[in-house]
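Q: What structure does this chain adopt?
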Amino acid sequence: MSSIDTEPKDVGVPVVPATLHTKRRQLLSRLLKSKAATISVIILLIVVMAAVAAPWLSPHDPFANKLIQRLKPPMFSNSSGIYLLGTDSLGRDILSRVIYGARVSLTVGVSAVAISGVIGVLIGLLSGYFGGKVDDVFMRICDVQLSFPTILLALTIMAVLGSGLDKLILVLGLTGWVPYGRIVRSQVMSIKNDEFVLAARAAGERQWRILFQQILPNIWSPVIVIGSFTIASNIVSEASLSFLGVGVPPSIPSWGTMLADGREYIGVADWLTIPAGVAISLTVLAINILGDWLRDYLDPRLKNIL
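A:
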């Protein structure tokens, strides 16, 4: 009888896929390597916390008019407390209105991106996958909308509809879907004839299952990057439209309305406009820097560089 081999055999080490926890650690590690991206995240966290906890962080009522203390400089104090950033032309606390303004900016930015993203992704999927007349119709619609400057188109629509937060979100959402549609269309056209899509067709998968279960998960990266940049663009658009008087109503604390209210006093009371301007600049800059880092992070060609 042959002897039984009792020596352990090298069966190889099974490859364990990276867990969600591991991916988060890798993301955090790469984020911390970029000082600009890390500072941008900190700024955005502060803005988000200010928006969420505005009722508790605001030292005064941002809606209360006190004409007796109008146009008071920063660090003004009286029996009701200290006004760190001064008061506006109606005696309202500037700091409290800046904190509440973060709510409006983030609400408009994120909500409009959600609307435009859904519309653009759906149109891009259908246009890139089916092609032909479907592609021609959607792309001609894109060309028509691109022929009008986005801010001018939004200004015209808001002038007809009137000011309002819900109307502003809807207008920015309906006018901002074109970049999503064009990018998603090009991505779908580049992968719709790949092996995994052809295999799904051969297996008899329905068209909608191929679109949403096979193709869509493989094109999320550019959509996320576009969304991050569009949030910043929507914040600027909201401030611009509110500054022109067709965005958020003057009764709602907004960075754009604060700029509009302070333009008449900029020569004698610059503290009315500087806080809102700094808030817009820092928020938009942080989002753009983080979006730029996210674009590099999601690019597989740069994963070994970051």
